Amino acid sequence: MRDIKLSPEEERKYFADVESVRELAGAGGRRPGVYIRTFGCQQNEADSEKIAGMAESMGYCIQDRPEGASLIVVNTCAVREHAEKRALSVIGQYKHLKAADPSVIIAVCGCMVSQGKRADQLKRSYPYVDFSFGTSDLHLFPALLLDRLKGGRRVFRLPPDEPPVPEIMPTERGSSYRAWVSIMYGCNNFCSYCIVPYVRGRERSREPDAVIGEVRDLVARGYRDITLLGQNVNSYGRGCSFDCDFTELLRRADGIDGDFLLRFMTSHPKDATPELIDAIAGGRHVARQFHLPAQSGSDAVLRAMNRGYTREKYTETLRLIKEKIPGCVVSTDIIVGFPGETEANFEDTLSLLREAEFDMVFSFIYSPRAGTPAAAFGGAVDAKTAGERMQRLLELQTGISAEKNAAYTGREIRVLTCGRSRTDPSVTECRTEGGKLLHIRQTVPEGVFVKVKVTGTGAFVLEGELAETI
Ligand code: 5AD
Ligand code: SF4
User: Fold this and answer.
1) Which atom of ligand 1 is nearest to the CA of 194?
2) Relative to the alpha carbon of 296, which ligand is closest?
3) CATH number belonging to the domain at 8-156, selected among 3.30.1490.20, 3.40.50.720, 3.40.190.10, 3.40.50.12160
4) Which distant-in-sequence residues (6+ apart) come within 8 Å of 216 by Cβ?
5) 158: pLDDT confidence band, cut at 50, 70 and 90?
6) pLDDT tens, 362-400?
7) Which ligand 1 atom is the nearest neighbour of the CA of 365?
8) What is the pLDDT of residue 469?
9) Of 250, 244, 253, nearest to 267 (Cα)?
10) What element of type H or E holds 179?
11) Which CATH class is domain 298-406?
12) Domain 175-287 belongs to what topology?
């Protein structure tokens, strides 16, 4: 069984720890500050919102810079080496903050520190880090913090074998109109390149009533863009005591009245069913958008990646999506330079891109992850070849994306405003239903659905002007 709850005792302890930290950390009279730095995917962002919620409930106020904070939390990613290096370098920058004020607590959480070797490295080489914990232990954050505030020893926790699905942590959301809702945690797929199943553990799902209650509450509070999150949403509910699969969950969330868009990610191509495609096609709120990570267009590479589908099966699913959901925006992930990838294998990926005509492609150069099967595969693709392949892929896809976007010219579409552009404050950034970026040269408050006319397009962004406010 994979839907283990916290025991009443564990819940009681959680709340007692929250109270004790509140007393101890706020003893000086002033409200202590917490700074949270997040790397990685949306799942990590959702986790950080829980850390922020717990910190607030413990009396901390959220601040947007590390200087002056009493508590610093770094939420790390391990999916590629680059992400780990960046997290380690940022943690390194906090050394002087601890030197200036030894009472500052520095905690590290997330995927990187769920690997024994990284936890050891932190313990040995980063003596100013107070404690670390993985994604399955978020609810232990108050206990770990309390222990350290009381002068306890440094603790570097590794993931438990049977992690629970706690429902007690509050969420402090980073946005007032866009929200992440985790529906499940972990992954059982063991794609040969991927560290996620090792660091996030086995799949476990939240109760459908808890998910639906959260979505209903968000809609009632005016949230407009709600994304259901899981590493592989198609396995939602598998092996659980309740009887509800992902399609059913999506239908239930779609049944909630209100003005909102419902998205989900990520769907594994091996389990994307015709029923799910029907649920999107017939949905009232479900965005006509599908992120379906292909990873490669070569059957030989897909087999070595342990993806569980062939190119033909993948393109058949894609055909069904395009047929049943007209105008659906389709995106994918591609890994370039997987061990053993030949020039011919890579050309198969390029031909998949030509055939599929994705709206967006997120491409990554393969990064060996210690402990995964692929890290021990021979046939490494040298960095120069991988870089050249990536360049060719980007050139091809830029042309395809530009062409797909050009088809929007002159159309009137509904978009959600997302605030001013950081680089040009005269521009309001918007997202289309399919998740494309659109700029308007007018100032509109964020979190509002507006109708725009598309006036220009490029490969990465559409341009538009207000047609009317909805
Ligand atoms: N190297 C490169 N890319 C990876 N991804 C996952 N693991 C690796 C790795 N070891 C990519 C996959 C996945 C996305 C989130 O990250 O494309 O879909
Ligand atoms: Fe990693 Fe594959 Fe699971 Fe995605 S489905 S998280 S790529 S193991």
Assistant:
1) 7
2) 1
3) 3.40.50.12160
4) 256
5) very high
6) 999 999 999 999 999 999 999 999 999 999 999 999 999
7) 2
8) 56
9) 250
10) strand 178-182
11) alpha beta
12) Transcription Regulator spoIIAA (3.30.750)
> Do β-strands 412-420 and 449-457 pair in parallel, antiparallel, or remain unpaired?
antiparallel
pLDDT at 169 over 90: yes
Question: pLDDT (tens digit, 9 = 90+) per residue, 65-107?
Answer: 999 999 999 999 999 999 999 999 999 999 999 999 999 999 9
The residue nearest atom 14 of ligand 1, judged by CA position, is 333
**Cβ(268) to ligand 2 under 6 A?**
yes
What is the percentage of the chain residues whose pLDDT exceeds 90? 94
Contact 296, 262 (CB under 8 A): no
Where do the structural domains in the chain lie, given as residue ranges? Answer: 8-156, 175-287, 298-406, 412-469
Question: What's the average model confidence in pLDDT over 125-145?
Answer: 97
Q: Which ligand has the shortest distance to the CA of 80?
A: 1
Question: How far, in Å, is the centroid of ligand 2 from the Cα of 132?
Answer: 24
Question: Which of 44, 232, 267 should be mutated for ligand 2, with most atoms under 8 A from CB?
Answer: 232
Q: What is the mean pLDDT of residues 137-164?
A: 94
- Using a 10 angstrom Cβ sphere, with 0-12 exposed, 13-18 middle and 19 or more buried, the burial of residue 263 is buried
Listed residue (173, 252, 175, 161) closest to 206, CA to CA: 252
Distance 375 CA to ligand 1 centre (A): 13
Tell me which residues have their CB closer than 6 angstroms to ligand 1. Answer: 79-80, 193-194, 293, 295, 333, 335, 364, 366-367, 369
Pick the CATH number of 412-469 from 1.25.40.10, 2.30.42.10, 3.40.50.300, 2.40.50.140: 2.40.50.140
